[in-house]
User: Fold these one by one.
Assistant:
Number 1:
Amino acid sequence: MILNDILNKENLTKEELISLLSIENEIQINKLFKKASEVREKYCGNEIHLRGIIEFSNYCEQYCLYCGIRKGSNGIKRFRMSFDEIIETANIINQLGIKTIVLQSGEDSFYTKDFISNLIKELKDKFDVAITLSLGERNFEEYQEWKTAGADRYLLKHETANEILFSFLHNKQKLKDRLDHLIFLKEIGYQIGTGNIVGLPHQTLEDIANDLILCKKYDVDMASFSPFVPSKLTPFYNQPKCNLNLILKTMAVARIYLKNTHIPATTALATLEEDGREKGILAGANVVMPSFTPFPFRDKYLIYDNKRCITEDPIGCLPCLSVRINMLGFEVSKSKGDSFKKENLN
Ligand code: SAH
């Protein structure tokens, strides 16, 4: 089938997803991005949503092969932010007018159920913001309690829909368990985010197509696709980084296929290329997630090498980002940017 016919279809088969991901011709790639932009415009409008991330701990109990803060990773200085430090950082994000706060960390049980609950309550009490948790796999009772405390969203990437690759990457953990967590989170009322890493060793285009199908099947509110960037602190230190076109194509195909789903232009795009995030927006993304992790922790949350903006003052990053967004012809949203899927809101 020719490209235009596929792009104009309401739904796409796995074979069609793979054929879109396989496009190499520059004219065709630009057509794909243009279509993704049209779909973004139709379902998400002209606004880019900012989510302020606080990476509050780089201690981790998992061994994910690709991740620089994995357990046992030597050569990294570990840190944990205190309750007050997290609140203070959230205050800065709130004052800058950003309406979503993402709390992200390694899987760190030092932060107990009660600590996180109290944190959520305090944040909700002080600020009119949405709260996204991105703490890895925790237990179901914790998810429930944090929801009751006021958390709105949970970001738990499936990383790859290939069961064998998933277990290989995650120290024999099972994809099914990860998906059970996602289903539970959705059932108890979280807006959920999942997604993959693109360009992982041993990953095929069919795997990436399956990642997109998984996002659709679970009707996720947000789907995040990050380019693999090696970390010198991991067993994958000498693996090649993701090709920029492959991640941009994945995002564009995701936009066309998933339609009214939030899709971020991840910070890792800016590691591949200085204006990688702008290219991500032009390929269909509608969310940017700047880090507000303060000094002296800011340069220590190194999940991959050459992370951008870790020596810059996070407050200074915001005007830079806003200008970049405006230059592309988009507005920075002033709303919380909840799910576009009204039926998923409660
Ligand atoms: N502990 C939390 C947060 C992990 S960091 C959790 O497990 O959910 C957030 C995301 O960074 C991960 O979900 C993964 O998709 C991404 N990531 C980790 N290492 C990466 C790498 N080397 N390249 C690209 N993305 C990476």
Number 2:
Amino acid sequence: MQRARGNELNDSELWMAVLTRVRALVSPKEYDTWFTKLGFKRDGDRAVVVVPNRFFADWIDDNYRHLLDHAVAKTLGDGASLAFEVLDTPPLTAPARSGKLSPSRLPDSLSPRYSFDSFVVGPCNELAHAACRAVAERPGEQYNPLFLYGGAGLGKTHLISSVGNWVVQHFPTMRVVFGSSEAFTNELIKAVRFDGITAFQEKYREVDCLLLDDIQFLAGRERTQEEFFHTFNALYDTGKQIVVTSDQFPRDIKGLERRLRSRFEWGLIADLQPPDEETKVAILTAKAGGRGITLSRKVAFFLARQPNSSVREIEGYLNRIIAVSQLQEVEVTLDMAQRVLGPLLANRRLSVKQVIKATADHFGIKTGDLLSSKKSREVSHPRQLAMFLARRHTNASFPEIGLAFGGKDHSTAVHAVKRVEALLRNSSEVRGQVQAVEKLLFDAREVGDAWLSDGGINDFGRATR
Ligand code: ADP
Ligand code: MG
């Protein structure tokens, strides 16, 4: 059995040793923001890092996990594993009305890192961004409520937090409450249990700007919805701003009361779509830049082209590359990025034939039609869409895509991708089609569905059935 190093040190000495290593690897600002608020204890072979709240845990897990793993292994020995423990679910905080502009005015759960400045605007999020700006600049006056919806990792929390940070900075007397709907629920439950419901109601009804993230968590919680409904009305009637986010359109949230749903539809509903390649590149470049790293276009495109639509995922890749670069003191190059991410990406790649199969299934046509040269719209549109998806979700080049679609020229594939990209900007129908095929692809990947292994097409792009 491997004997852990550092057994002779007590917890706080151990933690100091871990932090010393971490400090060498992050900027002073990052260190102050993220590492000075942590606690530490040992639990057998586990190193338990105690974090103030869930947000902290997620952030550190996403961004500094590798550094911490490394520092802990170096200090405690390779056998040590790392775990997080959340101190408490923080209540949603509303700063005092008379509060001066200071960091303490920030609601605890609101991360100062999420600002409009650090948000990259592209065709996929233009409307949501503009709406949030407008609301932040004139709370309660324009779009009320503002309802943001979009898939996981597309920037909802970033945008709603940007509203909060902006209002806190520019309207020192306004009371801003920001938090997850889960936190709202927990706080309500506590209030009910400890007879604090009046205080709870007073607190929420005195808010100038209520920002509730992930409203879909209220689904099925009747008591919380009821309380939220009254809060909503009180704020709305007095012209106070309400912003909520959700991973679904109001009508599609099952278990959400009709009266709430209809209120969400009173204001503006803005969606976030998966970013196109250029926007992803811009986001990656900005994120790397924020950490003092210049990302070459090659590396940025390599990451942006990975078959994932979520920003969070590609950001995770970036973080991993940066961590390795810092730990091993190597430069970030395309080779290096491929080496570091290779094992991770291998099982996420899709093949062109899987894309063809899923597209054919969705449109109810034969895979053979997609590989044919038929020009009718019923076939040519799905074919172009499939080529676009092949470009997005596989590592195939344009010539390879052309080949896989029954031996077509690469320019056919280029043209198809351009056309679908243009359609995506203007046609919600086409956006829906893309999402539906992607859902087929990803659902199947998750359950390891057998049909994924054989798209009914052989490797040379000929139909086998
Ligand atoms: P969601 O709440 O929709 O699941 P988040 O707001 O948590 O997504 O975003 C996930 C990560 O992606 C965050 O680190 C966020 O900063 C980043 N991100 C998403 N969209 C953008 C964008 N347009 N510009 C900059 N960063 C973005
Ligand atoms: Mg979120």
